[in-house]
Amino acid sequence: MREFSGEANGRGALTGRVIDRWVLGDEIGRGGMSVVYHAHRDGDGFGQDAAMKILSMTFAGRAMLDSFLRERRILSGLHHPGIARLIDGGVTNDGAPWLVMEYVDGVRIDQWCRDNHANTRSVVQLVEQLARAVAYAQRHLVIHRDINSANVLVNERNRPVLIDFGIAGLMGREDTRTMHAFTPQFAAPEQVAGEDCTTATDVYAIGRLLQTLLVDHTVDRDLRLLIDVATHQDPDQRYANARNLAEDLQAWLDNRPMRARAPSLRYRAGKFIARNRWGVAAAALLFVAILGGLATSLWQARIAAHERDVARAESARARQVTHFLQNLFRASDPDEAQGETVTARELLDVGGHQLSGAFEGDPALRGQMLVLLGNLYRELGELDTAEPLLREGLALADTHGDDNDRVDALRALSRAQMDAGNHDDAIASVERAIGILEELDQVPGPRHATLMEPLLFSLTELGRSEEAVTRGQAALDLARQVPSLPDPSLYEYLYALSTAMGVLELNDRALPLMREAADLGVVDEDSPSSLISLLGTLASGLERQGNLTEGLELRQQALATAERIYPRDHLIRARTLNNLGNTFNRLGRYEEAAAALSRALAIYEKTYGDEAIPRVAAVHNNLGNALRSAGDLETAATHIGRAQQMAGEIFGLDDYRFTIATCNLGNVHRLLGRFESAGSLFRQCLETRLEVMGADHPSVGNAQVLMADLRLDEGKYAEALALCNAAMALYDTIGYDRPRERLATLTRHARALDGLQRHAEARTAFNDAAALAEAAGEDAGSSREEFEAAYAAFQSRTTP
């Protein structure tokens, strides 16, 4: 082919050509080093449209070739909805490299803004989404280096997509040959000067793009300050990265304080009043912020005459809050404290006491303060204190507040009810809040998103997992239809749904949602409480795929984070300890499992007593399994028996979770030599799973393998062999390839053959099991120890 020689360089000269199954259509763009065509290919029952970029060998030198190949390498590692993804790549017959990218059916961002008469808020929303995509690239050590209006397209969903990574680079690997290939209007001073580019270089370009898009708009002081910081001449004075910029853009959209402004107490208090919301934060920091400037900040702006009455009312509110907080913080005054350190918890206690007589003239404000304090107590795990405050706050919101106050109070109350295990009440609170939001036409939306976790979690805890998945999927589908939905809200929908799917072991559907949530970049070390939840969900997905080692690393990271930010007896600590102990169990590290689970149970019992709570039942079950494997069978039987009793009370006898404890209890009875009761428990477990989960569910195979264990102990080898064969056939049929369960089944299969004196077949089965154990490594968990012991016993009897 003569793709780039002589006459072939004319516009559209390659239309109709075929390159490696891709048929080139119209030319859609060209630059000094490459040309881009619309491309299409057909496969088995599908067709695909894309954009093919081909390097012009006529004009390309070594630097351009390196740049082109670098773009291909970089794009191959980026998977984000805001970045055009790489589909294919290769070299033409005459040596011209080409790559195929996702075809973005959209228009340039500046043209889109003009065509749609975008207002300031719409522009900021677009740029905030762009900044999130750039932040994702930066987390993967990629700097774009040429963000401009031509390289950002707005697609049919009204979301920006970043294209053309032609001069992008990896952090710390600058290539001086490409330093001047940029768009001057958007290039940072250090880039123009030929100095090293950093994440702040992309921040500058995003800031300049925002400035350009807003040239004909009215820009308020805060947004002007944001742009000034993003486009500062000194890169050290800009936002450090695109994530920080995105957070400030979102803060501006939410009318919250921004990083861009010096953190003056007056400014933060002003924002607090402006957004009229009481978020959960560290008690001392929040109160100091309000105290420092709440009263005076209301008078900073020039107020139109018709707004003066409202302003005076707000000022009166501010004076009440200031007076309340001044009294509150006297507790930390040296003269009052007398040398003792006053903790945030103690300040809350003082605040709760003083609140009993405060704000009598403004019941709506009093309600907001009650919800704030209740939420803070909930965050500290003090549920008995939190719920009465939240109920009183809700009552005042109902009688004196507005719809926003009611939704905030119901959301906080639902989370407290969820944490306390009162899941029916939590669902009722969420349903009422959703009803209010529907009347306000705010479903889906940011407030609705925050209700998904208490709703779906409580449904699953009540055994209504399928309903949880159905409702969560419907909510996510609606959310995806809102282009302006902030990424943090999309994260809430994705996280809640993927967690519910995990309960039903819908791994193929759950894991992509988890990864999408993680890739949004809204959860990191700066939001540790959310990071704990995300780490736990990702760990569960990996473990369900058999990746126990990777799951353990995430569990340990989650626990370290929880121990850093939560008090010793907080429920989040208990939850992460329980999950970690369960992973230790599966890896065969029973002493570590028992230690973690005992700590979790102590926290739960301190909070709930002996009440039947799903989380408490789970930790009893997991602790019993650890003790069983460690040889303490009687204590194990006590814990697993309590888990079964709780599961029956909570979920009923026909629920899958009841069968888990039933099977585990049967296993302990087997080890104790109580074969008759063990057989009864195993049969109950298997029959219930067949009825509830269906014959093609892997849990049916797991129950068959446990029954096979019993038959082996009883010397009924033929029955054991039949049960193992049935389990393996089921696993093969449904593609269930978790190494721990498969190795356990192969080991019992070999033992049954050995018991039937079919030694040659048994040896083959043991060899198959050895190969699986070798391939699985640590992910084989406790099944490896069982196999090694059984194989050693077989070898000692059959080897001359």
Automatic annotation (TrEMBL):
Alphabetical keyword list: ATP-binding, Kinase, Membrane, Nucleotide-binding, Serine/threonine-protein kinase, TPR repeat, Transferase, Transmembrane, Transmembrane helix
KW rRNA-binding (keyword) present: no
Residues bound to ATP: K53
Domain (Protein kinase) ranges: 22-348
InterPro entries: Kinase-like_dom_sf, Prot_kinase_dom, Protein_kinase_ATP_BS, TPR-like_helical_dom_sf, TPR_rpt
Coiled coil region boundaries: none
GO molecular function, one term: protein serine/threonine kinase activity
Keyword DNA-binding among UniProt keywords: no
Transmembrane segments: 278-299
TPR repeat locations: 574-607
SMART domains linked: TPR
Protein name: Serine/threonine protein kinase
Source organism (scientific name): Marinihelvus fidelis
